[in-house]
Design a protein that fits this description.
globular
């Protein structure tokens, strides 16, 4: 891969990936010309959100399980589990124990602007990208300058946390079936192995030696051949899940619960303030941030410049809840096309797969990249911030910038990190 690169930044990352994984895919995005500049107040906001997010997750889990057990409004559990078969529905969840329902361990946020969380992913992709950029900045100090923030190696911080939580002999089973960037997972695994963390499938260990299971979504766990054995080990206290064995943390509908009439009272304002206004889409419409109700037809008649909402698949079915699929900026549709999308949304909702409308927060700013050919590329872009968390602390912030309002990883995405 290295011989195709003309700029030394790309050549460095390409060679690092190939040396560690034997994969020749290389770096697949654009590299910003400098680290992203975070002011002290913005950085402190990222730091403080770790505890707030975990409080949100705890409230959401407890509310969901109370509904599952019949101790709270059944509509809460139904918003997530309607139509699900017994092995992943109400009956399954009623059998889960406290240990099995421990909160997510490692996760990444996607923030449309600092403090406006559009999604929380456990464990998420992109950890390897942030690590590769950190290594690049250290390798080329004349180009990227000295560190301005207290961030070390992202994978190094992850490894320290795993050792602290799992003891001197962490053994990980990392499932890659539904990873959007499997090559990135391979890189993470190799870096963690270098830090002394053994992995099933890479090191001479057996499945029963594993004390930590990592997956990118619930389905990957639930239908794995080792699932029953993992659950038994977890209940004995001998194994922990990174992604808990429930679809609760996969479904975007849970981001609407701090705003939903049925659940709003369970969340304090500081938790609600983590998210852009998010509502479940119903046949009658949805509630706007000012408290007024708008019908679907009424929303379609608004001018495109006033339709500042994303429409997102809120359930956890992996064919749609994956990567950037089933996420639409409603302001880019004509009224007729939007009505057709709402018809599809209502059909999904009738089958138990709810959608949400989420207020579009945007952070437009200029972006400058250096291409593989060494050319400077400037663009007016939209910025997305991703914060990476261990239970102990914030360990990195990655920034994606793209001309499109829906910012995700692509060959045109400009990438940087706070450094």
């Amino acid at each position: 891969m290295g011989e195709r690169s003309t700029h030394p930044w790309y050549r460095f990352i390409d060679e690092d990936i190939e040396n560690r994984t034997r994969e020749t895919i290389g770096f697949t995005n654009l590299i910003a010309d400098r680290p992203y500049a975070l002011d002290a107040k913005t950085l402190q906001g990222f730091v403080e959100r770790n505890a707030l997010i975990r409080t949100y997750q705890r409230i959401t889990r407890d509310l969901f399980m109370a509904s599952v057990r019949g101790e709270a409004d059944p509509a809460v559990a139904a918003s997530l589990l309607t139509g699900q078969p017994p092995e992943r529905g109400i009956a399954y969840h009623r059998g889960l124990t406290g240990r099995q329902l421990a909160l997510p361990v490692y996760f990444r946020t996607d923030e449309a602007a600092p403090g406006a969380i559009a999604e929380i992913q456990c464990m998420a992709s992109g950890w390897e990208i942030a690590e590769q950029l950190h290594s690049l900045y250290r390798e080329f100090p004349a180009d990227f300058g000295a560190p301005a923030h207290p961030f070390g190696s992202l994978i190094g911080g992850l490894a320290v946390s795993m050792h602290d939580r799992l003891g001197p002999e962490p053994v990980v089973h990392h499932l890659t079936n539904n990873a959007s960037r499997p090559h990135g997972v391979h890189y993470i695994v190799q870096r963690l192995r270098e830090a002394g963390i053994r992995h099933f499938g890479w090191d001479p260990v057996e499945w029963k030696d594993c004390n930590f299971v990592r997956a990118h979504e619930f389905y990957d766990l639930r239908y794995n051949g080792f699932f029953d054995q993992w659950m038994e080990k977890c209940e004995r206290g001998d194994l922990f899940f990174d992604h808990p064995p429930t679809p609760l943390y996969d479904a975007k509908v849970a981001m609407a619960w701090p705003f939903w009439d049925k659940t709003r009272a369970h969340y304090p304002d500081e938790i609600r303030g983590l998210f852009p206004h998010t509502e479940i889409i119903t046949p009658d419409g949805f509630r706007m941030p000012d408290g007024t109700w708008i019908s679907l037809d009424g929303y379609c008649t608004l001018g495109q410049g006033k339709r500042l909402y994303y429409l997102k698949f809120g359930s956890h079915h992996p064919t749609l809840n994956w990567g950037s699929r089933a996420v639409y900026f409603s302001g880019s549709f004509t009224g007729v096309a939007l009505r057709k999308l709402f018809d599809r949304i209502l059909a999904d909702s009738a089958a138990g797969h709810l959608w949400v409308a989420q207020e579009a927060r945007m952070h437009p700013e200029p972006a400058t990249a250096v291409t593989r050919e060494g050319e400077e590329l400037k663009a007016e872009a939209y910025t997305k911030f991703s914060a990476f968390y261990t239970p102990e602390r914030l360990i990195g912030v990655m920034v994606m910038q793209e001309r499109s309002r829906k910012v995700h990883g692509s060959a045109e995405t400009v990438l940087s990190i706070a450094y």
